[in-house]
Structure formats: C-alpha cells, structure tokens
Design a protein that fits this description.
alpha+beta; Yope Regulator, Chain: A; Trna Endonuclease, Chain: A, domain 1; 29% strand
Length: 255
C-alpha cells in the first residue's frame, strides 16, 4: 500500500459519505462528520446569484442549550470560546444563533465547508465543560500517563504539512528526536479503520513537508476493534505504533 492509495481511499470515503436534499434553491448537506452524540452534522446551503452561505441551521446552539449550556448566557469564558472559534475559522453568527461561513463567487467551496465543520465541532465540544458530567478522552489518559511519569510534553501541537496544518495530540523531545503523537480510540471497527486512514494521511502530509518528526500512533487496544488491516495502516505510516495495554513501551520511548 502506497501513499496515493491511502489518500485516494480517504478521499473516496469522504465523497461517498456526503448526501444532499434540495429545498427550492437551498439544500441540506449531510456530512460524514459526527457531533458528540454520534449524529451526522448537517449543513444548510443558502444559495443566491452572488454567494452561498453555509450554516448549521442553529443545530449547535440548540444542542448545547438543551444540554444546559447557553452560548449567550453569563459565562464570559464560553462566550470567549465561541468568539475565538468563529474568528479562527473566519465564521460568523447568522440569524443570531446559526454558525455560518460565507462563500463568495469564485471562492473555494471545499475550504469554506472545512472551516465551518471545524467551527461547529470546536463549539460543540463546549459540552464537555459541564462540571456535573465530566468527560475524559483517551488523550486525557495518555496525558495522565505522561504526567505521572514526569514526562514534559506540549499538547495540541501544530505541525505544517504539505496541504494543511495538523494538530497532533502531543509533542515531546527526547534523545534528539522530535516526537509527535496521535492517539486513537473508538468502539467501532469500521470507524477504527477510518481514523487509522486519517492518521496515515496526516503523517504522510507532514512527512512530505518535513522529515524531522518521529511520528507515533498510540491506540486504545482495550477495545477489540483494531483489525490487522487497521493496525497495518498505522504501522506502515507511523514510525512507531504503540498499544495502551503496553504502557511501559510508551514510557520507555520518552524516558
């Protein structure tokens, strides 16, 4: 399996998992990207002669509000997070409570869609700020492992690839190695294959731009979802594939 096959499979998967319903001049686009409840994110496209406005149709606001989070309430922290997510993705509020991006004639539609998805998922993750419902990810568990073993690391480390910037979960310098980590966890076999391909794409894209990084995948193998095909993809395009059930191997790498 070479780089082109991995990239083409990922792009084919993306193409095959979008669907659309038209309503007059407008349409609803169902994407393969999921909200924290595991439901598909839907985008409304409002089309006129000069531009297209892509919006979440207020779904993010409604989802958070019904979960006890008012984006426009008294919390300055949540409001600041909202404004930061909008600013970083060149998005805005449409009809007061819809997350949206504008696509003028001649602009890249795919880039605009990507910016909107990033803004939506970033804002939806405010659900995890509810103190009464703590949420811990596999990434948090790996971070705890590093902390307990006094391993200094940078989280959410940004690396420039050939086609885009990528956020890696951890960055650690050890023994003249610049190590970047991607943590992967799921309870679904098909989704495990998907995120393995996504990680492979990120590592390929980084490697084309810069060979200085030692790329490590860490999988949560406490879930019986990792097929030989999925782990082979990660082994092929990572410098190292590590398993959570062998934490000593993880620490030995960064000791």
């Amino acid at each position: 399996m070479d780089c082109n096959i991995v990239i083409n499979e990922y792009l084919s998967w993306l193409k095959g998992n979008f669907s659309m319903q038209s309503f007059g001049n407008d349409c609803i686009i169902t994407t393969p990207f999921l909200d924290p409840n595991g439901d598909s994110i839907e985008i409304k496209a409002i089309i006129d002669s000069d531009q297209v406005v892509l919006t979440d149709d207020g779904e993010t606001y409604d989802y958070l509000f019904l979960s006890g989070i008012d984006l426009f309430g008294k919390s300055n922290i949540r409001r600041n997070n909202l404004e930061l997510s909008l600013h970083k993705n060149n998005a805005f509020l449409y009809n007061q409570n819809e997350i949206a991006v504008r696509v003028d004639k001649g602009e890249d539609f795919g880039n605009a869609m990507n910016r909107l998805i990033r803004a939506i998922t970033s804002i939806q993750h405010l659900i995890y700020t509810i103190k009464e419902v703590p949420f811990r990810t596999f990434k948090d568990e790996v971070a705890d492992l590093f902390f307990k073993n006094k391993v200094e690391c940078i989280t959410d480390y940004i690396v420039q690839g050939k086609t885009a910037e990528h956020k890696l979960d951890f960055y650690i310098e050890r023994n003249n190695k610049k190590i970047v980590f991607k943590t992967l966890s799921t309870e679904s076999g098909p989704y495990a294959k998907r995120i393995a391909k996504e990680a492979a794409f990120i590592f390929i894209d980084i490697g084309i731009k810069n060979q200085m990084f030692y790329k490590v995948s860490v999988i949560d193998d406490t879930k019986d979802v990792w097929t030989p095909e999925s782990t082979h993809i990660l082994s092929e395009y990572s410098n190292r594939l590590l398993k959570w059930t062998n934490q000593n191997e993880i620490i030995n790498l960064v000791a």
